[in-house]
Specification:
This protein is α+β, with helices and mostly antiparallel strands. The chain is 30% helix and 16% strand. It is built from twelve helices and 13 strands. The strands form five sheets. The protein has a five-stranded antiparallel β-sheet, with helices on both faces. The protein has a two-stranded antiparallel sheet with strand order 1-12. A two-stranded antiparallel sheet has the order 2-13. It starts with 9 loop residues before the first strand and ends in a 5-residue tail after the last helix. The structure holds adenosine-5'-diphosphate and magnesium ion. Magnesium ion binds next to loops. Adenosine-5'-diphosphate (ADP) binds next to strand 3, strand 4, strand 5 and strand 7.
Amino acid sequence: MTNKSPRHVISSSTSSDAPDSPALNTSIANENDTTLIANKFSNITLAEREERQKALDRLEILKTVGTGSYGRVLVAQDRESSVYYALKIFSITHVVQSRQVEHVKSEKEILSGINHPFIICLHWTHHSDQFLYMLLDYVPGGELFTYMRKRGTFDLKSSLFYISEITLAFEYLHSLQIVYRDLKPENILLDAEGHVKLVDFGFAKKILNKTFTTCGTPDYLSPELFKGTGHHKSTDWWSLGILLFEMLTGYTPFNPNQNEIEIPSRVLAGRISWPRTIDDVTKSFIKKLLIQNADKRLGAGKNGSREVKEQAIFSSIKWDDVYARKLKPPIVPPLEHPGDTSCFDEYKEDWRSVPFASDKDLDLFADF
Ligand SMILES: Nc1ncnc2c1ncn2[C@@H]1O[C@H](COP(=O)(O)OP(=O)(O)O)[C@@H](O)[C@H]1O
Ligand SMILES: [Mg+2]
């Protein structure tokens, strides 16, 4: 599939620890030969640790299907069951140096506690003296991003399919007081049948009131994130508005010229030029999601996601059918077998040689 230039993520650091100097020794790790690290401070029993190590050793690592600013995702096959998985790995030294310790831990905590048809399933986490590991279901259909760039735009019916499934995922997360904070087509994957799986919980956070760390991808950031005045669940509804606009037009509303520098001022000015192809009902829905004042935005009221689901744009949608995966996916990924990687881009396999983590850095992940 086509290559893409990645959209950047912004993340203010959340780790208060000063970064260590990098360990000097680097090595070529063999996936069959990772050392078992059992830390004396861990809450995880040695037996559990050994189980995870065995499960890791059983995996045959096949290839990279995704990279981000902090992690890399590899397809792997369990040699016993033949099941394919996605193994998300992070270099421990890199996570510490880029001050993403809290984000990675929170990704694990949040994913461990959730279960929803449109959200990725995490099986276990583990670490070696170089890497953190998260074993996820493999979602073979690839990124919605790839299909968007290939097709240019989606029609309204197709867009509503994706928006509906994401709305239910957000409703579920928000009911657990979790904000997702990184909605964009790169983090929306299609499963073998074409239904949505939301991945990448690196910026997701459990919040009771407001939170202040700025993170996300410029095109999708809400005004309160640019202002740093604190944000809550309604920042996710903002990003849903951006996504719908991007699906229908092929570009995001505050970055029509593909010039990231202009985004903050355009978002804060809140002016959008509306193409004539967007009908009035859709326009009014997107406008309500893109209300500047986060407390007045659609979805921010006390009825939360119900406000969103009751909008005219969804009048033909039966929400029980959406949850039951009964809507017909507009795209069925062209897959030949469950481990097919043809829907993903190609990446260099240059990940094995990373520094060993220092004992101090390893201690940070004793429970991982
Ligand atoms: N479970 C998965 N199955 C298949 N591909 C995945 C899976 N999780 C992530 N990916 C791919 O890897 C990319 C990077 O993963 P992501 O979790 O978004 O990491 P990052 O935090 O580095 O952005 C995703 O955009 C997607 O293409
Ligand atoms: Mg991502």
